[in-house]
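Review box. Two proteins, two foldings.
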Amino acid sequence: MSNWKHGVPKVAFVSGGGSGIGLNLTRALLADGASVAIFDLKVEDALLNELRSLCKGNARVERYLVDITDPKAVENAMDDAAATLGAPEFAINCAGILRTALFTEMSYEMFDQSMRVNLYGSRNFAAGVLKHMRPGGHLALIASLAGMCGSYTHGAYATSKFGVVGLAEVLRTELKPKGIDVSVVCPGEIQTPMLVEERRVGSRVTEIVNEFAGVLPVEVAVQGILDGLRKRTFMITPGFKAKLTRYLARSHTGLFRWIVDQKVAKALKEVQ
């Protein structure tokens, strides 16, 4: 049994639970004996059946097909989930997208979509969850290292993730007196389908610059995230290189920017 600080949650809400980090966290929660409500655009029947086979005792898995950018739809789905499974003791927003381009080549639509999914989606998730979460609960939002340091071609992504970190800071302050803990997860790059697609269509310069923080296998990243969540750590960054990047970006900004500038200059020469 995993060592959750306040005991294993009986009911957990996970957005983006149909793939990537969200799916791996869902599996871990089920292994600990929790019931899980998954909120996602798509969750295939075969995957749902697989997850249900992992349930222990009276635990359950339910799916709610919803667009995280639709506040009313998210609220209604969470109302249904709370009525079916009970109030969430733990909830984590993993829904997100990564769209990259040089800012001067980025369409308004690309920027807007990143904000609506990553930032407004975090807002919608938190608002829906907090209607039902009681004292002792734990709310977590997935942000990114890009939420603390801008990287090449991350104009939309970093802006949205900086917003998620800011939202989490405010929620931590406001919810602590109510007995609800908040975490914000700020990982570097993780080997997920989202990163595979970014490598396919994105900038080689971005890939070279981001090597500084490293790339973690999803299983390793999820284990590091879980370790932080179980302790109810506020800011969670799995992996040594990513932790070092976060430290430099926050505590030695001048040095960090110099390192980034050097890597960008070198990468631009390499790809020419």
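Next protein.
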Amino acid sequence: MHIRDMKRRDLHAIRALAAKTWKATYTPQIPDDIQKKVIRDAYSSHEMNRRFRSSITLVAEENGRIHGYAFFSPEKYSEHNAYLESLYVDPAEQGRGIGRSLLHTGLRRFEQPDHCRLIVYKGNKSVYFYTKEGFEITGERNGDFFGYPVTLIEMEKKLNGKG
């Protein structure tokens, strides 16, 4: 498995993988029509161009096939700290260390970060993954997701003994 920077030529594969992972991950919590809106908007050319300019965009590739991806950005009020926007791995490939490799590769791109933060939907099984990776739940809040009510879990991992 090779972790590399995402290229524009990867967008079709990323959109297909996003649709697949969202369906597998969120079907119990988020209706199909809302999922489709998210995929259309969050992975639009406009939004992906923004990510290419302002985020660290990584893919996990093996034998020319993308099995996972992650988006990191600098934290809003402390640019040396990391914010994990998204991390998704093909459900058929989970358990092979792909998510862990994406996470650690992305974190190494930040210069001496104190912490990494993320937000995940309550009920998402990835909370277990993030907990195993050293993240702690720091809060919970209700939100509105394209008109659909959701509960969000805020998580944080302290890095380099700081934070």
